[in-house]
From TrEMBL:
Keyword set includes Ligase: yes
Residue span(s) of domain Glutamine amidotransferase: 68-178
Gene for this chain: carA
CDD domains in the cross-refs: GATase1_1 (cd01741)
Gene3D superfamilies in UniProt: 3.40.50.880
EC class (word): ligase
Keywords: Ligase
EC number(s) per entry: 6.3.5.5
Entry protein name: Carbamoyl-phosphate synthase small chain
Example of a GO MF term: carbamoyl-phosphate synthase (glutamine-hydrolyzing) activity
Length: 227
């Protein structure tokens, strides 16, 4: 199965030599599930010729806001609507989660309660998960076709499904401790409160359930359902 990764942002320059870019993190996360990958840097206006070029699509995270004025956002939203109408499986993570919701009639905004960063607890599809987060924006109004399958006290719309066509999550199963530590170092200061950054670093050695969520994503691509 060929998965097209729509990269909507890049990892910090300081991190890329050791962690790779965001698309590399997803290829590592989903490696071993029998997928082939093609990367499109849509943030740099590198779009596929057709939505049928791949059997499924995945939209990455980004430092950008879904509601911001960037050239890549309108064509990406149009592509999302086209993928949905064509019943091709689509997965979105963080910004991907948000831009899919926005494209299909939901609302995304900078959340009044601030940031969620580092290791967080979620209920997803009836199970407890520990996953890394890095976001201030949230889906505050979900599209009419979206059903909540994951949440926590801070993020009500943390995971959404749109029938058996789309699965999206706000946290980052592709982020391990190295990436979170790098984001705290290079993108945290001046943005995220110091106390939250200190907690991020205190939690770096605690386990997360990236592999479990990767298995859910792989199953969704292959079977159009979650376990």
């Amino acid at each position: 199965m060929k998965i097209g990764i729509l990269q909507t942002g890049h990892a910090p320059d300081e991190l890329r030599p050791t962690t790779g870019d965001f698309s590399d993190l997803f290829q590592a996360l989903l490696g071993g599930h029998g997928f082939d990958f093609t990367v499109y840097n849509v943030v740099d206006m590198d779009f596929p010729a057709a939505i049928t070029d791949c059997n499924g699509w995945l939209i990455t995270g980004s430092k950008h806001g879904a509601y911001e004025d960037h050239p890549f956002i309108p064509p990406l939203e149009a592509m999302i609507r086209e993928i949905y109408a064509a019943d091709i499986p689509l997965v979105g993570v963080c910004f991907g989660h948000q831009i899919i919701a926005q494209a299909l009639g939901g609302r995304v905004m900078k959340f009044d309660a601030g940031w969620s960063v580092g290791r967080q607890s979620y209920q997803i599809n009836g199970d407890d998960y520990a996953l890394n987060a890095w976001h201030q924006d949230q889906v505050v109004v979900r599209p009419k076709d979206a059903t909540i399958v994951g949440s926590n006290d801070f993020c009500a719309n943390a995971a959404l499904v749109y029938g058996n066509r789309i699965f999206t999550v706000q946290p980052h199963p592709e982020f391990d401790a190295r990436v979170i530590d790098g984001l705290a170092t290079y993108r945290g200061p001046g943005n995220v409160p110091d106390a939250q950054l200190a907690q991020v670093r205190a939690d770096l050695d605690k386990p997360v359930d990236n592999g479990r969520l990767a298995a859910q994503i792989a199953r969704f691509f292959k079977e159009r359902e979650l376990a």
